[in-house]
C-alpha cells in the first residue's frame, strides 16, 4: 500500500516474509486484532514520554497531549484528528511524532504496518507529476484506513510538497461519516513544517527582549499567526490550501526555538545514549557553540538539537 512497502515486497519479499513469520509477536498478532487492540492510546505513557524526553516545548507537548487525550475518549470521532507541527529544524517535530507513534503502536512490527510516513522530498519529488501523486496519495490513504481505521499518517518536509497536492486528501479529513463504506474518523494525520518557524522565533524573541518568560507566550495568537503565514507563504505546502480555508486542521502547533539550556539536555542525553561519561565541560562547550541566533544575543540554536549527535562524535 506504500511505495516503500511495495519495493520491499518486490525486492526482498522472501527475506521480509521470513523475518516477519519468525517473530513470535507477529505470529500471535492477527492483522485486525493488532489494529483494534491498540485502538486506545496509552495516554499515561504518552504523558510521561512527552514530559521527560522532550525539552523546551511546553506549548507543543501541552496541545499534543490534550488533543490526543480528548480523541482517545471518543468512541467514534466525527473526523480524523489533524495536527500541524511548525518550527525551526531540530526542534522536535519528528521526535514528538515518533513518541506518538510508539505510544499508539508499541510493537515495532505493528507500528510499521499502521504508521505511514510520507516524505515530500522522497515520495513527491517532481512537481509536474502532481496529478499522479494525488491519485496515489488518495489510494494509499483509502487502502490503509480500510485495513486499519486507527492509522497514523505523518507527512514530513511539508514545505517541499508540490502545490495543491495536500488538498487532494481534503475529503478524508473533513468528511463526517463514511466515504464509500470507509470510516476515517479514527485516523490521525500529522503535518511537519518548517514554515511558520520564523514567526514563532520572532514572537519568542520579542517576549525575551521584553524580559517575559517563554511560558507567557499565548498559544492562541501564535496559532492564528501560523495558519495565516502558511496560507500566504508560497514556499509552504499549505499555500492557498483548502485544508486551511475549510478549517480541517484541528491544531497548529508551535515548536519554540531551543535555547542553550535545552541543547545542554540534548547533549547530555546523547552522551548517555552513547555510553559516555556526562562531561560537564564538553556539554557546555557544545551547547555554547550551538546557541548561535541572533548573532548578538546567541539565545537560540538555529539547528535545534539536530546536529548534537555529530558534535558529540566529533568531540569524544
Ligand atoms: N525538543 C527536543 N527535546 C529533546 N530532544 C530533541 C528536541 N528537539 C530535537 N531533539 C533531538 O534532535 C533530534 C532531531 O530532531 P527532530 O528530527 O525531531 O527535528 P525536526 O523538528 O523534525 O527537524 P526538521 O524540521 O529538520 O525535520 C531528535 O531525534 C532528538 O534526538
Automatic annotation (TrEMBL):
Domain Torsin-1A C-terminal: start-end pairs: 258-312
Subcellular location: Cell projection, Growth cone; Cytoplasmic vesicle membrane; Endoplasmic reticulum lumen; Nucleus membrane
Binding site for ATP: 87-94
One Gene Ontology term of the molecular function aspect: ATP binding
GO CC terms in record: cytoplasmic vesicle membrane; endoplasmic reticulum lumen; growth cone; nuclear membrane; synapse
Keywords: ATP-binding, Cell projection, Cytoplasmic vesicle, Endoplasmic reticulum, Glycoprotein, Hydrolase, Membrane, Nucleotide-binding, Nucleus, Signal, Synapse
GO biological process: nuclear membrane organization; protein localization to nucleus
Known catalytic reactions: ATP + H2O = ADP + phosphate + H(+)
InterPro entries linked: P-loop_NTPase, TOR1A_C, Torsin, Torsin_1/2
UniProt similarity note: Belongs to the ClpA/ClpB family. Torsin subfamily.
Complex formation: Homohexamer. Interacts with TOR1B; the interaction may be specific of neural tissues. Interacts (ATP-bound) with TOR1AIP1 and TOR1AIP2; the interactions induce ATPase activity. Interacts with KLHL14; preferentially when ATP-free. Interacts with KLC1 (via TPR repeats); the interaction associates TOR1A with the kinesin oligomeric complex. Interacts with COPS4; the interaction associates TOR1A with the CSN complex. Interacts with SNAPIN; the interaction is direct and associates SNAPIN with the CSN complex. Interacts with STON2.
PANTHER family in the cross-refs: TORSIN, TORSIN-1A
Protein name per Swiss-Prot or TrEMBL: Torsin
Gene coding for it: LOC109313935
Amino acid at each position: 500500500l506504500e511505495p516503500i512497502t511495495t519495493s520491499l515486497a518486490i525486492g526482498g519479499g522472501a527475506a521480509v516474509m521470513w523475518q516477519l513469520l519468525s517473530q513470535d509477536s507477529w505470529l500471535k498478532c492477527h492483522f485486525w486484532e493488532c489494529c483494534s487492540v491498540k485502538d486506545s492510546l496509552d495516554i499515561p505513557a504518552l504523558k510521561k514520554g512527552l514530559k521527560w524526553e522532550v525539552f523546551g516545548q511546553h506549548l507543543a507537548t501541552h496541545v499534543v497531549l490534550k488533543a490526543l487525550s480528548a480523541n482517545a475518549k471518543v468512541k467514534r470521532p466525527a473526523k480524523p484528528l489533524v495536527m500541524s507541527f511548525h518550527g525551526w529544524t531540530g526542534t522536535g517535530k519528528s521526535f514528538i511524532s515518533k513518541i506518538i507513534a510508539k505510544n499508539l503502536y508499541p510493537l515495532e512490527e505493528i507500528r510499521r504496518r499502521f504508521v505511514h510516513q510520507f516524505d515530500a522530498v522522497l515520495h513527491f519529488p517532481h512537481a509536474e507529476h502532481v496529478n499522479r501523486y494525488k491519485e496515489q496519495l488518495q489510494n494509499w490513504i483509502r487502502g490503509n484506513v480500510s485495513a486499519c481505521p486507527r492509522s497514523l499518517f505523518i507527512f514530513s518536509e511539508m514545505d517541499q510538497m508540490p502545490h495543491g497536492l495536500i488538498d487532494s486528501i481534503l475529503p478524508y479529513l473533513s468528511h463526517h461519516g463514511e466515504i464509500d463504506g470507509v470510516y476515517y474518523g479514527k485516523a490521525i494525520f500529522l503535518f511537519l513544517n518548517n514554515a511558520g518557524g520564523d514567526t514563532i522565533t520572532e514572537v519568542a524573541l520579542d517576549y525575551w527582549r521584553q524580559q517575559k518568560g517563554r511560558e507567557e507566550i499565548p498559544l492562541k495568537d501564535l496559532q492564528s499567526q501560523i495558519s495565516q503565514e502558511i496560507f500566504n507563504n508560497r514556499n509552504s505546502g499549505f499555500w492557498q490550501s483548502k485544508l486551511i480555508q475549510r478549517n480541517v486542521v484541528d491544531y497548529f502547533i508551535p515548536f519554540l526555538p531551543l535555547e542553550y539550556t535545552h541543547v545542554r539536555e540534548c547533549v547530555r542525553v546523547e552522551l548517555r545514549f552513547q555510553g559516555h561519561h556526562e562531561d560537564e565541560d564538553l556539554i557546555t562547550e557544545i551547547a555554547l557553540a550551538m546557541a548561535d541566533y541572533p548573532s548578538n544575543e546567541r539565545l537560540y540554536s538555529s539547528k535545534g538539537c539536530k546536529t548534537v549527535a555529530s558534535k558529540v562524535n566529533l568531540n569524544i
